Amino acid sequence: MRRHSEFELIESLFGPLAMGFPGALGLKDDAALLDPPAGYSVVVTADAIVAGVHFRPDDPPDLIACKLVRVNLSDLAAMGAKPWVMVATMAFPDSASEDWISCFATGLSHERQQFGIPLIGGDTLVTPGPATFSLTAFGLVSQGQALRRSGAHPGDILYVTGTIGDGALGLRVLAGQLSFSGDESELAAHLINRYHLPQPRLTAGAGLLGMATACIDVSDGLLQDLSHLCQESGVGARLVMKRLPLSPSAVAAVRQTPSWLEAIVSGGDDYELLFTAPPSTQKALEELAQTTATAITAVGTIVAGGNDIVFDFEGTTVPFSRLGYQHFQACYPRPAGQERGWVLVADHLLQLVT
Amino acid sequence: MRRHSEFELIESLFGPLAMGFPGALGLKDDAALLDPPAGYSVVVTADAIVAGVHFRPDDPPDLIACKLVRVNLSDLAAMGAKPWVMVATMAFPDSASEDWISCFATGLSHERQQFGIPLIGGDTLVTPGPATFSLTAFGLVSQGQALRRSGAHPGDILYVTGTIGDGALGLRVLAGQLSFSGDESELAAHLINRYHLPQPRLTAGAGLLGMATACIDVSDGLLQDLSHLCQESGVGARLVMKRLPLSPSAVAAVRQTPSWLEAIVSGGDDYELLFTAPPSTQKALEELAQTTATAITAVGTIVAGGNDIVFDFEGTTVPFSRLGYQHFQACYPRPAGQERGWVLVADHLLQLVT
Fold first, then answer.
1. Quick check: A84 and A141 in contact, CB under 8 A?
2. Domains plus CATH for chain B?
3. Which residues of A239-260 are buried (b: 16+ CB within 10 A; e: fewer)?
């Protein structure tokens, strides 16, 4: 069967994703036209994902599309912005069937509905390499109100939404490195779902406007992103390990093999919000957690000192060097012995939580 | 030598490209903040390029970066927009050296200077596949003034800037398919330069505001893009073949092998503006050509009839079906005999121009 031409494909599969937004010009012009409402700043973020690096080539195509959108929406959430529109460049491998591309478009369509974010432009192409998708997401936030990484003060409480580590462990389940007994298949399913379908914390992020002093989304790993927040704010942090919000699946994984803790705190793919707020906001945050049905957990405190982060084990503190998944470091093996250190830390943690 | 981490790379190579634009937040936050000036629409376009498809893997990395920027700026030019900011996602192959990446950043830096367009965000990653770059370019245009593809009327004159076909022929020179004798090396150099370094027609595009009735940039090939313009405007066109503006290099190529005409009118990579304007604007267009030092050539007329395009050979008209480079069709061999048709057309054209 002859494949559709590029222009027919754009029109039939992606054209409908532009509907309802006149400035998209039906994806039929050289560019789109945006007129932001008065009093708002436009928040812009872009992330790309590559088959074999950020998703598994055999992941369902609609879920790949959802993840592409959500990793970007998570960045909007971290600024407290409301999603507005998106632009995507999509390089499909020559081997991708029309069904595969169509299923991918269905995923984008789902996200357009779910988050009210039309596709207003972009590019479709064929690549001789792995599927590669880039998305630029646009949000809106009241002028001067956007959350930043740089406003944390000593004395602020450090919070995180949801649970940490599930996405990273879900990837290990899919790779066959982590498994649960037959009775516990729902533990694995939870992790896989969290890997495939991040939940950008948009309503929580918007609710933090005027309350959080600093905010970042956890995409590179809790430690790495905490390090970014501390660096931009010029502060240190004390992370109370026993307060880390872990799902039952993550707890079960660490009970099996304590060194999974490393994946939990540095594996990334969480798309939760890590933020700071003064102690005076505690009650308001409890209300926000209730109204948005989002777990918000205090996991530590901000202290003076440039980017000086310590583990706190009920009084005993352990400093740690910067870790976390970095794309350009992933090519290199981890230094010998480092994994052993994580086992010790996890053992210690287990004594606290069990 | 250990490669820099992703964050160090962003900071050292790409951070400086954000300077002077406070909303970029130094590329150190989750997203960038844009506050468009009152009275302007934001024009947004995104195009991706892949090694081996849109550029040659051994092209100089700084020129690849320039091309990435310029193919997008050409879309802004087609709307009459002034460049504002850009966002890039850059997937470098694992084999790319720091020197290669650094040279690529130098190209972006050059474009930032040349077009006053800071890099306000994006993503850098490593891909197991070919180098893949996606850029979202933002422009500004007075509200309600943007040029569109859809406003051409019967009776309008059809114009094109610069010369057509040089980029497509430049690619053939680099591929060893087209060569010139030793005395004519500057003919080849001109084509190669046009392939590597498109000249987005930004000042001409801005000058067309309020004058052109429809406009598109020629990226997929003159015939393909004329077809888009006609389709969106609901009109036909009569293209006077002997008026096509060809460089001395392109004329020499067609004299060698008449079928190069197909590459000229359908090969793409021109990044010239194809636009329509009523006959009353002729004098103003001549002035615009002078003040912007841009050749503007009348190449035909707009006629009634849906997307009905004919060649005009001084009275004899030849209809032609839609052609042009389409990424999704490029996988399939061209129908047999079609090339012979182009030789006949080119022979006919040569009789007119020689």
1. no
2. 6-142 (3.30.1330.10), 157-353 (3.90.650.10)
3. bbbeebbbbebbbbbbeeebbb
Report phi then psi at A114, rounded to 5.
-60, -40
- Work out the average pLDDT over A207-221: 96
The residues, ordered by sequence, that sit 6+ positions from A23 with a Cβ below 8 Å of its Cβ are A32, A33, A34, A35, A85, A120, B41
Q: Is A286 exposed, middle or buried (0-12, 13-18, 19+ CB in 10 A)?
A: exposed
Residue A213 backbone dihedrals phi, psi, to 5 degrees: -90, -25
What's the alpha-carbon Rg for chain A, to the nearest Å?
21
Q: Are A327 and B216 a contacting pair at CB < 8 A? A: no
Residue A199's contacts (CB-CB under 8 Å, 6 or more residues apart) are A70, A162, A271
Cβ–Cβ below 8 Å for A126 and B53: yes
CA pair distance B65, B336, nearest whole angstrom: 37
**Candidates A36, A44, A328; nearest CB to B32:** A44
**Spatial CA neighbour of B272 closest among B234, B299, B312:** B299
Average pLDDT, chain A: 87
What residue of B is the nearest CA neighbor of A94?
B331
What residue of B is the nearest CA neighbor of A143? B35
Q: Name the pTM for this structure.
A: 0.89
How far apart CA B297 and CA B281 sit, in angstroms, is 13
Q: Which of A330, A74, A327 is nearest to B9 (CA)?
A: A327
- Answer yes or no: do A30 and B217 touch at CB < 8 A: yes
Mutation pick from A150, A328, A331, A332 vs chain B, by most beta carbons of B within 10 Å, is: A328
Contact state of A328 with B127 under an 8 Å Cβ cutoff: no
Percent of chain A with pLDDT over 90: 71
A278-322 tens-digit pLDDT: 999 999 999 999 999 999 999 999 999 876 777 665 655 555 543
**Inter-CA distances, B296 with A203, B90, B158, B210, Å:** 52, 35, 10, 17
The pLDDT averaged over each successive group of 10 residues in chain B (354 residues) is: 60 90 91 96 97 92 97 98 97 92 96 97 94 98 96 97 97 94 89 96 98 96 91 91 92 88 89 98 98 97 81 59 36 39 56 54
Nearest Cα residue to A221 out of A207, A203, A248, A239: A239
Longest CA span, chain B: 68
What burial letters (b/e) apply to B174-202, b meaning 16+ CB within 10 Å? beeebebeeeeeebbebbbebbbebbbbb
